[in-house]
Amino acid sequence: MAAEQTHCVLDSRPPYIVFGYGSLIFKPPPHVIEETHGYLKGYVRRFAQKSHDHRGTPENPGRVVTLVHKEDWDHFSAADPFPDDDVVWGVAYTIDPEYESEVRDYLDYREKDGYTLEKLNVYGLVEGHERVLIDNAYCYVGRPDNPSFIGSEPIDQLAEHIWRSVGPSGPNKEYLYNLVEAVRRLAPESHDSHLYELETRCRELDRKANHTVNNSTGDL
Description:
- By secondary structure, the chain is an alpha+beta fold.
- The protein contains seven helices and nine strands; from the N terminus they run αβαβββαβαββαββαα.
- The chain has helices at 2-12, 23-26, 70-73, 100-110, 155-164, 172-186, 193-218, and strands at 17-20, 32-41, 43-51, 62-69, 87-95, 116-126, 129-141, 166-167, 170-171.
- The protein has a five-stranded mixed sheet. It has a two-stranded antiparallel sheet with strand order 3-4.
- Strand 8 (166-167) and strand 9 (170-171) form a beta hairpin.
């Protein structure tokens, strides 16, 4: 009887749905029972958050993406070559209700470096028409007033910083490359100018570094 009551309580609660726009796209949370590809409106995704614990170190923090409201970003976007972006594609994950508490704890720890949990609507295109796919999905947002927020940096400077940074989770550029590949696969419309430009610049740094190594090897 107690088990049946517990099951009824779980069924009566709204589902726990979390929207991923960064590493959650290519490294989903556990106990996912449904994925929905969609986008947020009125926000930008930018490498504007320091990473002290995953893609950098406390002494040399890397850079990871955060979600910033477009109106807030306008105050920090002097160095942004794509000031008109206002849509962010990602994946909304519906979590198995039996594991909601476990997944919440997991994500709170994973996103602990300056992120705040908010509720946002997820949009999508259905037969060519835009509509809300999910109301009030949870989303981890790095607000501009959090201590890890770095704001806008010149794109060349940012690309080189990402290219050189390394943390416990691996090279910072690997995070960028994985994210770009994952975003491209979401939908034909899932373009992200900021991500793609950073990828282009970091790939160019890869080519220059490989060229230098090959030339040095040839001189031996």
